[in-house]
Write a structure and sequence with these properties.
Blueprint: H1 3-21, H2 24-35, H3 51-67, H4 73-96, H5 102-135, H6 140-160, H7 162-184
């Protein structure tokens, strides 16, 4: 595997993780990067860098971002975001990978891209559910702002510094996993009489 192929996989993983935070932000940033010549898309995905796609992603991003600040709309978006993030994660992964056969590219896109996006989306759904349960939804705009910021940062990092983006994704998984297992606490076996 060439260095270019490996870097394109890392770009895809970073963008896929960002799709778990916000579905359209990574697509918009990817479109901007492609449109400006800072990212080369795989064969068949050049449409992502076109002006109509850029405009569509900008509108979709604005609507998604605003929707997360409206009570109850954020809940509906969370329900739709899980399957949408899997599709978006698969798409960004497939469009980022170069130097690989279509079968391997799509297999990797579905497994790694869709899988990473689904895992991150699950974490964000749990965070929003926890926020709603503990604050009655008052903290949801703060959660939405954090998710947006992470998505923008992760998307930009994936294109500019793909290794740092994957390191950030691994750090997120580590932090969330550690908090999950710490919250569960040790499970002691039941005493037998």
């Amino acid at each position: 595997m060439s260095t270019e192929t490996l870097l394109s996989i890392l770009v895809g993983v970073g963008l896929s993780a960002a799709c778990g935070f916000r579905v359209f932000v990574p697509l918009l940033i990817m479109s901007i990067a492609s449109h400006s010549g800072h990212m080369t898309l795989s064969e068949g995905f050049q449409w992502i860098g076109s002006f109509p796609a850029l405009l569509a992603f900008a509108i979709a991003t604005a609507l998604e971002v605003l929707g997360y600040y409206i009570p109850w709309v954020d809940h509906v978006l969370d329900m739709v975001a899980t399957p949408a993030s899997i599709v978006a994660g698969t798409l960004v992964m497939a469009s980022a990978i170069s130097g690989m056969s279509p079968f391997l590219r799509w297999s990797l896109a579905i497994i790694a891209g869709g899988g990473v996006a689904a895992a991150v989306q699950t974490f964000t759904g749990v965070a929003r559910l926890t926020s709603t349960a503990t604050t009655g939804g008052l903290a949801n705009p703060l959660v939405a702002s954090a998710e947006l910021g992470i998505s923008v940062l992760l998307s930009a990092l994936a294109i500019v510094l793909p290794i740092a983006a994957v390191a950030a994704v691994l750090a997120i998984f580590y932090f969330v996993g550690r908090r999950f297992f710490k919250a569960r606490g040790p499970r002691l076996p039941a005493k037998t009489p």
